[in-house]
Amino acid sequence: MHDFCFTIPYGLLLIGGGFIGYMKKGSITSFAGGAGTGLLLILAGYLSLNAFHKKKTSSIAVVLQTVIAAALTLVMGQRYLLTQKIMPAGLVTVISALMTCFYVYKIATGGNKIPLKAAE
């Protein structure tokens, strides 16, 4: 599975979560955090998708994705430990930890694999 297949929906999920936090609680911090990290992830996913169309891998995109997911895991994990609230801290922590593991796997295996037909 290619990283952009998960990264773009992950970014959209974060943007949506930030928007919901803003609508429910009026939290500008939630909106800014969700929108900022979500947009960066969508950008990284777009860079990775463009590289894939050119039959290449984008190391910068995968590293950016990994750093953002790991940072969200740490920040939201600490927030979960303080508040013990599943929404949103616990959910974002679990999803971000899974995404971090996926991105580390992609880095370890050399990024997106180009299909043989596309490589010719």
UniProtKB/TrEMBL annotation:
Put simply, this protein is called Protein FATTY ACID EXPORT 6
Enumerate the UniProt keywords alphabetically.
Answer: Membrane, Transmembrane, Transmembrane helix
- The answer to whether UniProt assigns keyword Glycoprotein to this entry is no
Q: Which InterPro entries match?
A: TMEM14, TMEM14_sf
Task: Report whether Transmembrane helix shows up as a keyword of the record.
Answer: yes
Q: Which family does it belong to?
A: Belongs to the TMEM14 family.
Organism, by scientific name, is: Raphanus sativus (Radish)
Q: Name one Pfam family in it.
A: Tmemb_14
UniProt GO molecular function: fatty acid transmembrane transporter activity
Q: Which Gene3D superfamilies does the UniProt record give? A: Transmembrane protein 14-like
> Can you list the GO cellular component terms from the UniProt entry?
chloroplast inner membrane
- TM helices/strands, residue ranges: 7-23, 29-49, 61-80, 86-105
The record's subcellular location field reads: Membrane
